[in-house]
Design a protein that fits this description.
Layout lengths: L14 H14 L5 E2 L11 H12 L12 H14 L9 E4 L3 H11 L5 E6 L3 H10 L2 E6 L10 H7 L4 E7 L11 H11 L6 E5 L25 E6 L12 E4 L2 H14 L5 H12 L3 H21 L15 E2 L10 H12 L1 E2 L1 E2 L11 E4 L4 H15 L1
Parallel strand pairs: 1-10, 3-4, 3-5, 5-6, 6-7
Antiparallel strand pairs: 2-8, 7-8, 9-12, 11-12
Helix pairs in contact: 2-9, 3-9, 4-5, 6-7, 10-12
Bound molecules: pyridoxal-5'-phosphate.
Amino acid sequence: MPKLAANLSQLGTETAFEVLARAGKLAAAGKDIINLGIGQPDFKTPPHIVEAAIKAMRDGHHGYTPANGIPALREAVAADIAKYRKVEIDPDCVMIMPGGKPTMFFAIIMFGEPGAEIIYPNPGFPIYESMIRYSGATPVPMRLLEENGFAFSADEVLAQITPRTRLMILNSPANPTGGVVPKEEFDKLVAGLEKWPDVVILADEIYARILYDGREHVTLLSYPEIRDRVILLDGWSKTYAMTGWRLGYSVWPKDLFYYAEKLAVNNHSCVNAPTQYAGIAALQGPQDAVDEMCKAFDNRRRVIVRALNQIPGFRCVEPGGAFYAFPNIEGTGMTAKELQNKMLNEAGVATVAGTSFGAMGEGFIRFSYAASVQDIERACDKLRAMLA
Ligand code: PLP
C-alpha cells in the first residue's frame, strides 16, 4: 500500500449506499427484499424536465458552462428563492453545484482545520461529521432528542459555541429524523448568534419543500441579522426526484462566493450542461408533480408511523418533514446495528441503523418511506412477525 495522506483515515461514509449494495446483492440472489434504506424519491423525474435535458443535448449544449452555472439557471434559482422563501437574493451569489453534497464539502473545508470547532447535528447526515473529521477540525455534536421532536435546543447549542467555533451546520427538515425545528427555536438561536459574529452558518435546507400538516419552511436566509454569514444548501435531488442527475445549488455570502467558485474550478469545472437546462425546466415549469409527491409522502408517513408503533419494542414520533421515520427501538433489546442486520437478513427489510448518523443515533433505526404503501405495510408486517 502506498503511503496515504494521514487525514484520509478520518474520512467516514454514508452507510445507506452500503445497505443499498447489500440489499441489491440479496435481491439478485433471489431474496424478497423491501428497500426502506435509501433516501431517494421512488418517483420518476417529471417528463418535462427530462425533455428539457434531451432538447439541450440536441441543441448542442455540449460544452463547458461557467463554473458557477449558466446565468439563466442562477436567475431561476434566485426567482425560486423569492417565490418559496420570500427572500430576495442576488443571482451572482448562486453557485450551481453537482448535487447537494458538494456544498457541504466546500463549506466544511473552507472553515475546517486543526484547532477549529464545527457544530453539527447528531444524529444527522453522516457526511457532516465525516468531512469535519477529514478537515482536521473538532466535531461538536448538537444533540437532537426524540422528546423535542428531534429539534435542537437553541440554549444548548448557544452554550456549545466557543471562540474556536467557525461553522455551525443546521438541517431542517432533517435527515435521518424527519424533525422540523420550530421557528421560535430558530429565532432564539439567531438572537444568541449576535454575540458570535464570526460563526458562519451552513443551512442545509434540501428538504424545504417536503413538509407536512401545513408547516411553513423557515429559511435561515430570512434573518437579516445573520444574512451575511449564511450559506444555503439546496438542490433538485429530493424535490424533483433527480438524485441521479447530480444537480444542486448553494447561495453564498458575497465574500465567500469567490472561494466557492475557486473550489469549483479546482474540483469539477462546472455541472454538465444538459442537466442545468433540466434544472431551469424544473424550477420554471409546473409544480404539480412536486405537490403530488408530497401528498403521497404524507399518506405514506401516516401509514408507516402507525405500522411502526405496532411493532413490539418500537416507538415512533411523527416526523414533520422529509421522508424518513426514526423510531426508537430500545424496547427490542438490540443495538441499532444488530437490529438493522437482523431485519435485512431475516425479514428482507433494508433500513439504516441510527448509529450510521452519529453516536447519538444509537437506539434508533431510519426508515425511508419513499416506497409504496404496499411495500411499507408488507415490510412492517414482516417485522411485526419477526419480533413477535
Ligand atoms: N443534505 C441532506 C440532509 C441529505 O439528506 C442529502 C441526501 O440524502 C443531501 C444533503 C445530499 O443531496 P444530494 O444527493 O443532492 O447530494
